[in-house]
# Entry
Amino acid sequence: MQPVSTQVVVLGGGISGLTAAYRLLQQGCRVRLLEASGDLGGLGGTFEHDGRVMERFYHVMLDSDEHLLGLLRELDLEERVGWRETRMGFLYGRELSPFNTPVDLLRFGALSVAGRLRTALGAAYTAKLVRNAEKLDDRPVSEWLRGIYGPEVYARLWLPLLRAKFGDLHETVPAYWFWARLKREKSKTKEVKGYVEGGYRLITDRLRAAIERMGGEIRTRAAAEAVQETPLGIRVKVAGQWESCGAVISTVAMPILKKIARGRLADLTPRTDLVYQGVVNVVALCRQSVMPYYWAAAVKEDFGFQGAVETTNVVPMVQTGDRRLLYLLNYCQQDSALYSLDDAELKRRAHRAIQDLHPGYPSNAVETMKVFRAPYVEPVWPLGYLKQRPESRVGDSRLYLSTTAQSYPRVNSWNTMVGIANEVAARVAGELTENTSGGIWPERQSA
Ligand SMILES: Cc1cc2nc3c(=O)[nH]c(=O)nc-3n(C[C@H](O)[C@H](O)[C@H](O)COP(=O)(O)OP(=O)(O)OC[C@H]3O[C@@H](n4cnc5c(N)ncnc54)[C@H](O)[C@@H]3O)c2cc1C
# Structure
């Protein structure tokens, strides 16, 4: 392949932006990455406490995460991934019970015996029997689940979980998304999750080092303020200055892109109207374990959170300085009352929630609590989204996308985003090569 001299600007320093920059450099492009915050890692970013580095939001990997594991292999990190079998719990009313095996289901007191049987049959059907699953893209998940599981199981089990994940918009989320998720998480009898020794910060650090070694430039505290086409290419405004380049890859959420896209790009960019769920979570750093489960879904009116994740059932305690980490979380929109609850109230709720999960838990075993929020986690997928999912290139422009808005119906994860970034980077490198040899964009070059 002939070397490409044209520069690519990547917007965002989360896993998508870092992977895209790394791949572009491997393919001979010159790259500059702009990150708005002071840190790399995006939603997989970290905080420091007492000299230890921990994730702001719970993060683990699955053994089926082929794209992410492939990247870790290249970065010499695959050997450092430790795997642990995990279990799920269910807090229903006052009872926290295991929810993993057929025996757990038979004992699950929140459902009638008929409901338990229907749940088992429904799970087998959704995992194995559905053919032509793409048809589910036009079918609301609420209607589909009600049909399979019946009104009791739907109302007691699924409705609270859907409400928790998507709020009032849950009725119109496509069944296709849900089916893909169930299939991914429950495709094996054992649930195994992995964490890289050194944490997600180590992955980000290795990527940064590899990018800089290959001559790429990374700028933090450098928010893209505008993106606009020019007769010869495309340009990005940062710190009040325009910088021209041959192509831009945006990894930011579509509503952010809507704010910064100018001129024709503003008209061409698809689905900038997507509504996103954000997240607010309290991380409790504890001296004792709160629960034996990696995660527990919660259906209890005054619990205050939609679920709890004790990551140290996977994350080695050497990472946390022998602390247990419990994440209590709520997915919600950034303009909701829940999102803007003040930190003190969230911590009060978190202390109560710990008592619900583990009655009599000593309050002095909680060393401290931290609160983190993120406004854009994942779009609330509308019906028929498969047909509306953005392409990786915005029309015939030089703006490309590598964002969670393209992940549907796959789960929003580092693995999915590495896969998307790999593809987009290959496309950009290929099209830049064609461009430098007079292939594409000729009318814009001569304009
Ligand atoms: C609570 C929670 C739990 C999760 N658990 C897991 C898990 O267990 N396993 C897993 O694999 N995934 C998990 N995920 C999902 C995972 O975090 C995401 O899929 C992934 O981080 C998305 O990466 P990204 O680079 O596409 O986007 P982001 O991480 O959102 O990165 C986008 C970046 O763009 C930057 N930016 C924004 N505006 C601008 C601008 N104008 N100019 C420049 N930069 C800008 C942002 O600051 C950010 O750094 C979880 C997410 C959350 C919130």
Summary: The chain has a mean pLDDT of 91. The chain has three domains: 7-80+198-274+387-446, 101-185, 192-197+276-379. Residues 114 and 445 are 68 Å apart (CA to CA).
